[in-house]
Design a protein that fits this description.
160 residues; mainly alpha; 2% strand; rod-shaped
């Protein structure tokens, strides 16, 4: 048994020489500081990324709201254009300007001959214009009357 005790003592002695004796905190300090700095840097970068995403989200919602308002305005303007280009509205404005319906037209053929019988537009007595509907509150650009105020509410955003 003495051989095995000496052998164990020799093996333990060799293992003891491989392992440093005493506390060695000087080697751990840079590693711990590196881990803490990496964690702090990661948290700060996540905070900055989250702030940038929130700012983009606020800008996106503002642009959507502006798009909705501009779409509402565009639709209101299109309704105005459509009401001005209706045939009865065009005729009413033309009569106010003193225009009369034209007679039968005559056409020129490519060889210079005239096809049809031209007629002079006859000034008919202008009929009493029918009263405009009360719902139409848009001003007539051809009339010299002062513009009326619109009862149509301004376009609003649905809050999306």
């Amino acid at each position: 048994m003495t051989g095995t005790a000496e052998q164990m003592k020799g093996r333990a002695g060799r293992l003891a020489r491989l392992m440093p004796s005493g506390p060695n905190t000087a080697a751990r300090t840079p590693f711990v500081l590196l881990v803490v700095l990496l964690l702090a840097g990661g948290l700060i970068s996540l905070l900055l990324l989250n702030s940038a995403l929130n700012e983009g989200s606020f800008r996106l919602s503002k642009l959507k709201r502006e798009t909705t308002e501009l779409t509402d305005e565009q639709q209101a303007l299109q309704r105005d254009v459509d009401s001005y280009s209706q045939p009865d509205a065009l005729e009413r404005r033309a009569r106010r300007l003193g225009m009369v319906p034209g007679g039968n037209p005559a056409f020129l053929n490519p060889d210079g001959s005239v096809r049809g019988v031209p007629e002079r537009a006859a000034a008919e007595p202008s009929p009493v214009p029918a009263p405009e509907p009360a719902a139409s509150t848009t001003p007539d650009p051809a009339s010299s009357a002062p513009p009326t105020t619109s009862t149509t509410p301004p376009p609003t955003s649905p809050g999306r």
